[in-house]
Amino acid sequence: MTARLILGKEVSESIYSELRERIGKLKAEGIVPGLAVVLVGEDPASQVYVRMKGKKCEELGMHSVTIVLPESTTEAELLAKVNELNADDSIHGFLVQLPLPKHINEDTIINAIDPKKDADCFHPENVGRMLIGDPSFLPATPAGVQQMLIRSGVETSGKHVVVVGRSNIVGKPMAAMMVQKGKGADSTVTVVHSRTQNLPEITRQADILIVAIGKARFITKDMVKEGAVVIDVGTNRVPDPAAKNGSRLVGDVDFENVKEIASAITPVPGGVGPMTICMLMANAVKATECATRLR
Ligand code: NDP
Fold it and tell me: Fewer CB within 10 Å: C terminus or N terminus of the chain?
């Protein structure tokens, strides 16, 4: 068997066309959804993400603001910027790009973001709402994975989902979303991590295996059940003498071999990657719709 590919570009295009319609309706009422991204320092990967977010906003006809602050920015200065964005009516959603320089406490910054403008869905109020099944927003990467499952026709109800990784950004919210009642969820969920014993025994039980650990090609064929759906969130840069810049991106899954036994699989790149920005845009549009209803 060779697995069917689930491609983030295809799935995200269908979501973007829905978002364009919603943005059109808002604009007809004179409202332009506004998304701001704050970047502190010069982390090259973060610079790339921030540029991509700004570009996508503009493509969708949204108001896009990118604020770049120097590495030396103090926590108080960043808090002042967050408060400014909280009060800015032209900005409906914003995020502070992580990671932050070590002298700034990430939790302090996240907690200062107005939950109604929390485009990343990292604020504890929004995380709590997601957990009780009454979300305002959903965290972008897990929400993107869920949309990939729904829109590519993968049945999740009653299925055993094994999530590898327990970060606050991917693993934990992913597990929390899949265990909810409703479409694209209703799953039986197991979470495994670096302290898990007999990890391959558990991954082999997965009908749907979602991997987010940041270890190149960690999940090998012998760790996957025949016919499983495999979602690879990982992005790892590995040396590749044949590539122009001497390296290339691979996932946490040994794609070439696992695709021989999986029923469906996401490649890296081209799988989950495009979904994260897409779901961020969806959060910004939702924040605008909610703010408009509250006026
Ligand atoms: P973190 O480093 O925050 O978390 C990694 C998780 O993996 C931890 O829970 C850790 O366990 C677990 N882990 C590490 N090694 C092992 C192991 N050998 N066996 C089992 N579990 C292990 O990473 P993130 O969740 O932020 O990201 C994970 C990957 O996903 C990265 O490659 C990242 O680049 C990618 N990513 C991709 C996105 C996209 O848009 N495509 C978005 C976000 C992330 P423990 O808690 O015990 O330490």
Answer: C
